[in-house]
Amino acid sequence: MAFTPRILLRLHIEAVWGVQLPPITHNTVELLGSGPQPSWRLYLAKLAGEQIAIWRPDVAAFEQEALLMQAREALALPPASQLAPRFSREVALHQVASPTISLATAQDLARLLTPDDRALVETFTPGYSEYFFHPDCRPLVGVVVGDHLLSLAHSSRWTPQACELGIDTLLEARRKGYALAATLLWTTQVSQENLIPFYSADAANAASLGLASAAGYRAFAQGVTIEAEQLNP
After folding, report:
1. Tens digits of per-residue pLDDT, 208-225?
2. Are 120 and 149 in contact (CB under 8 A)?
């Protein structure tokens, strides 16, 4: 099933921040006030030749013009530019191209992890094995060489329609194809459950974006968020 960039954007935001959005039928939309709210006040997305402003419901109308101008300026900067405090910039991607390795190659390197691998996960991320083996993190995929877990892919966010990838690889195990294998196997598992796998990364993270591209992911949106100001205690 084909999804428009607007639908993908809504599903991505709902998956990452656990919020609820109405269908994006206009270039300005508010999050539903009845559900959880994100820390950001504005998410400005650039997609398919247009910009979509997504507002938290508590942002007053008189504040919106200045915030929107600031977000547009940040979105126009080169990807590696340093942003002002409270600003973040991401690239959201989905898989539409062929990966640079085959699924068979990925399966030779990576595999699904089971509760029997809990000790490996605990060594990889001390104190977080309970988190990773929670059902919301499935599918849990790893690259195990000998008795060592070297790369770990999981669902960092999960909705009834989509999953967002979380991927981490030990520094000494990078540039060996392990993260690519884990990403590709995770993507395949999610797709087989008729869910949309999403990949997002900081716009300045060239290594992460390169991994996404190798796994067949392509950008459908760039986004800038402006966080709420922290009040002094």
Report:
1. 999 999 999 999 999 999
2. yes
